[in-house]
Amino acid sequence: MLETKVCILGAGPAGATTALQLAYMGISCVVVDKAVFPRDKVCGDGLSGKVLTLLSRIDKGIAERLQAYVFKEDSWGVTFVAVNRMSMNIPYKPGYQKLPDEPRGFVCKRIHFDNFLVEELKRCPQVQLIEGKAVTKYERLPDGYLLADVSGALQIKTKLVIAANGAHSGFTKEVAKIHMEPAHYVAGIRAYYSGIKGLHPDNLIELHFLKNVLPGYFWIFPLPNGEANVGIGMLSEVARKRKANLKELLLDAVQHDEVLKERFKDATLLGNIDGYGLPLGSKKRRLSGERYMLVGDAGFLIDPFTGEGIGNAMYTARMAAQQAAACIAANDYSATAMLAYDAEVYRVLGPELKMSTRLQKLIRFPWLFNMLMRLSARNKELQDLLSCMFHEVDLRKKLAKPQFYLRLLFVRRSTVTR
Ligand SMILES: Cc1cc2nc3c(=O)[nH]c(=O)nc-3n(C[C@H](O)[C@H](O)[C@H](O)COP(=O)(O)OP(=O)(O)OC[C@H]3O[C@@H](n4cnc5c(N)ncnc54)[C@H](O)[C@@H]3O)c2cc1C
Description:
Elements: E1 2-9, H1 13-24, E2 29-33, E3 46-47, H2 49-58, H3 60-67, E4 72-75, E5 77-81, E6 87-91, E7 105-108, H4 110-122, E8 127-131, E9 135-141, E10 144-149, E11 155-163, H5 170-174, E12 185-194, E13 205-208, E14 217-222, E15 227-235, H6 236-242, H7 246-256, H8 260-263, E16 268-279, E17 288-289, E18 292-294, H9 310-330, H10 335-348, H11 350-362, H12 366-378, H13 380-388, H14 393-399, H15 402-417
Parallel strand pairs: 1-2, 1-11, 2-8, 5-13, 11-18
Antiparallel strand pairs: 3-7, 4-7, 5-6, 9-10, 10-11, 12-15, 12-16, 13-14, 14-15, 17-18
Helix pairs in contact: 1-4, 1-9, 2-3, 2-9, 9-10, 11-14, 12-13, 12-15
The structure holds flavin-adenine dinucleotide.
Flavin-adenine dinucleotide binds at residues 9-15, 32-35, 41-46, 134-136, 164-167, 170, 188, 190, 231, 233, 276, 278, 296-298, 302, 307-311, 313.
């Protein structure tokens, strides 16, 4: 039997980042993943600036190695395409010149990105990584947990469990008693294509708000080598009500949508179209308990508007590692001590999760989006304002308020009547 102070379930972005942060604080841990890396994960593969920011907070060297990683494509902004099929390019920084320190995102297949993080783990002597074993048993002991795989061949006694095993985490359901709720969950599918025409030369990621997909969207995220990640995400509540078949919706969009059909005419679908769930942070939940914390998707923390989960997974991972260090130092793993983790997560991510929940509700009204597009197509100031939205939560706050649109409407009417 293995014994450790900290055992991390899952070596995806949440688990790997937790272990890296612990290692850089000199704390040993065991990480168990049911997969053997490199492994695929169904995802849009879009990584926001949060990822590099967070990695450089742990260790600048890791961030530099990721910057130089050949499997990723830098992306300098977002193209929004409204229901009326008007489009608008919003760079992450107005007037960007692609300088090294300018804000950008990137797109990287998860098979490569997650393997990059796991390779970093393998450099850390404090981390014991066990691959190819699923932890399915969690027995509570007076001084920790006894974790085991289904056969019982793997047994790990740990003082603290950090559950980072993703959207389908058994630990989240069985121990934390958090279950999937269709109003706070998105069903997503992903395909890889090559040969799509009209991708932006600066690899702007594309979000298409198609009427029959709202309040979700269809995306195209440009990858290296002329490939792209193409997918659809739809609120599970809506998908169930409409009995929507996301695969059919995706194929229908690329074959029949007036904007997309030309662009996909000569494109090739690479491999299968696969699906997976996105547990949203549109509801505040308890993320810890005695001797455990939930990080990343296991804590239901995906941004409800953008669908971004990797950045949030990595942010919460670092916070969990810091909390683990505090628990070890004080020898206090009580549910009360763990509350500090919940407080930190909601202090840092709470405001943006709240804003994104409001924005997600607003996009159910396609006319709002259409109007925003129409107005900003003619208004450079509004375009710059939308660019800043990516970095400023206060600005997103404005965008989430109905008064913002009413004012725009009023300005438009008064300009028209003048
Ligand atoms: C269709 C789709 C599109 C998305 N697009 C984006 C996007 O473009 N950008 C973005 O930021 N986010 C996106 N997301 C969300 C993103 O994929 C997740 O938020 C992210 O993967 C969370 O990381 P994680 O480490 O918490 O979980 P995961 O990446 O799911 O990692 C969990 C790990 O735990 C392991 N595991 C599972 N069960 C066990 C077990 N019992 N024992 C041991 N190991 C176990 C798994 O093998 C896996 O390696 C998307 C999600 C979907 C479904």
